[in-house]
Amino acid sequence: MNLLETERLMIRELEINDASLIYKYSIEKSMQEELPDQVYENLNEAREVIKFLTTNYKSTPQSYPLVYGVALKETNTLIGHVGLSETSSGIEIGYAIAMDDQGKGYATEAVGAFSKWAKCNLNLNAIYGILKASNKRSQKVLSNSHFVFCEEVVMKSFGGKYLNKIYVYKYSKIQSR
């Protein structure tokens, strides 16, 4: 089921049939470096993760993590994911786009649309973006998606201890005109 559409993308519920692509994308170099906790050992593990994630789509009150597939509208080909997770400071957005599809603006398109949807539909006071300070591409995605830089902090994250940048989503209805 589609959650929302943008000019070029569909943000939709993940399906078991997505497992082979989820697994393929999870073992790409960029995922191993930036999101090592989302690298799967095999196809079966990817299936189990999808089964777990799909149980949260209909939960009331909303359960996290809440993760959706990002697919090309024209072909319905899954190219990544976008979602929300609980952290000690609140709700954090996470996203990844397959390496072959990076640099085309898909992450910004997905993150911007999904953040706006989440803020309006899930009654969230804030959405945080937390990333390694060295991840310049994700900094650009967040900045272009109405996230504002808040602080740098060394913290345990992404499979180690890193200097991270923390952003907060600052969309308001006034900006949408």
Question: Residue share in helices?
Answer: 25-40%
Kindly estimate the percentage of residues that lie in beta strands according to DSSP: 25-35%
Strand ordering within the main sheet? 1-2-3-4-5-6-8-7
Q: Number of helical segments?
A: 5
User: How many strand elements?
Assistant: 8
- First-to-last CA distance: 28 Å
Q: How is the biggest beta sheet arranged?
A: 8 strands, mixed
What does this protein look like?
By secondary structure, the chain is of the alpha+beta class. It is built from five helices and eight strands. Strands 1-2-3-4-5-6-8-7 form an eight-stranded mixed beta sheet, sandwiched between helices. Helix 4 (106-121) crosses helix 5. The chain is globular and about 40 Å long.
Summarize the helices and strands and which ones pair or pack.
Layout: E1 2-5, E2 9-12, H1 19-26, H2 29-34, H3 43-54, E3 66-72, E4 78-87, E5 90-97, H4 106-121, E6 128-132, H5 136-144, E7 147-157, E8 160-169
Parallel strand pairs: 5-6
Antiparallel strand pairs: 1-2, 2-3, 3-4, 4-5, 6-8, 7-8
Helix pairs in contact: 1-3, 4-5
Question: In summary, what is this structure?
Answer:
By secondary structure, this protein is an alpha+beta fold. It has helices spanning 19-26, 29-34, 43-54, 106-121, 136-144; strands at 2-5, 9-12, 66-72, 78-87, 90-97, 128-132, 147-157, 160-169.
Main attributes of the structure:
single chain, globular, alpha+beta, 8-stranded mixed β-sheet, 177 residues
